[in-house]
């Protein structure tokens, strides 16, 4: 799995060496920086601009690329013992998913459940600045089954929607599932009806909605810190 970008490159080099298969450099580095990379003992292949662009599929690699082991998704059943989970419903943009994974890691979310049959984890790892590698991520195809099973495990269900209430007005339970819908379509009524509470972010100026990754970060902060 190819990932690229300076920040991701050094994050993985520092925290996930066991995943690295090969390193690629497509720029000249100062001696000190090159030595700090080479001392890790991995094979380093130098690439010209054309080869680097092809490997990154024309992405902004900044001269730093690496081949790492494929991401291993977590079985949903193993997440049932967690306390704080998030379910992403109808969110397909890998930029948003990566940003959500980054916030989830920062705020101590135990795992992400994503409604999808497959997911480009190379893009998610990149857009999360590498944090997705520190998150348990499970792919599911039936959101209602997930909600019902987690309810049986003692989880309270908190959905995000415009017509909800502020987090500060809710007595949060220890085991909780936060559900986020897409910016365009939100969450279907069947999920809202299954929810114990619907949470919203009150805004000063009248505006339709926030970016879903920004909304997720705000809600996580209020859930964890308020």
TrEMBL record:
Domain of life of the source: Bacteria
Molecular-function GO terms, alphabetical: RNA binding; RNA methyltransferase activity
Domain RNA 2-O ribose methyltransferase substrate binding residues, every copy: 2-74
Alphabetic keyword roster: Methyltransferase, Transferase
Coiled coil: none
A family per Pfam: SpoU_methylase
GO biological process: one example: RNA processing
Entry GO CC: cytosol
Keyword Phosphoprotein among record annotations: no
Listed InterPro entries: Alpha/beta_knot_MTases, Ribosomal_eL30-like_sf, rRNA_MeTrfase_TrmH, SpoU_MeTrfase, SpoU_subst-bd, tRNA_m1G_MTases_N
Annotated NCBIfam families: rRNA_methyl_3
Annotated protein name in UniProt: rRNA methyltransferase, TrmH family, group 3
Organism: Campylobacter avium LMG 24591
């Amino acid at each position: 799995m190819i990932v690229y970008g300076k920040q991701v490159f050094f994050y993985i080099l520092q925290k996930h060496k066991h995943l690295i298969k090969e390193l690629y450099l497509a720029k000249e580095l100062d001696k000190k920086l090159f030595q700090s990379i080479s001392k890790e003992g991995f094979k380093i292949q130098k690439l010209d601009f054309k080869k680097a662009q092809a490997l990154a599929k024309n992405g902004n690699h900044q001269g730093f690329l690496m081949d790492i082991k494929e991401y291993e998704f977590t079985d949903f059943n193993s997440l049932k013992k967690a306390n704080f989970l998030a379910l992403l419903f109808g969110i397909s943009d890998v930029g948003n998913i990566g940003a959500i994974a980054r916030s989830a890691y920062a705020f101590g979310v135990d795992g992400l459940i994503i409604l999808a049959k497959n997911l480009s984890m190379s893009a998610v790892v990149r857009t999360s600045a590498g944090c997705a590698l520190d998150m348990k991520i499970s792919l599911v195809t039936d959101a209602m089954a997930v909600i019902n099973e987690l309810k049986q495990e003692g989880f309270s269900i908190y959905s995000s929607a415009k017509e909800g209430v502020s987090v500060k007005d809710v007595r949060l339970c220890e085991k909780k599932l936060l559900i986020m819908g897409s910016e365009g379509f939100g969450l279907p009524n069947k999920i809202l009806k299954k929810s114990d509470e619907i949470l919203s972010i009150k805004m000063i100026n009248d505006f339709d909605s926030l970016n879903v990754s920004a909304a997720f970060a705000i809600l996580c902060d209020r859930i964890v810190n308020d």
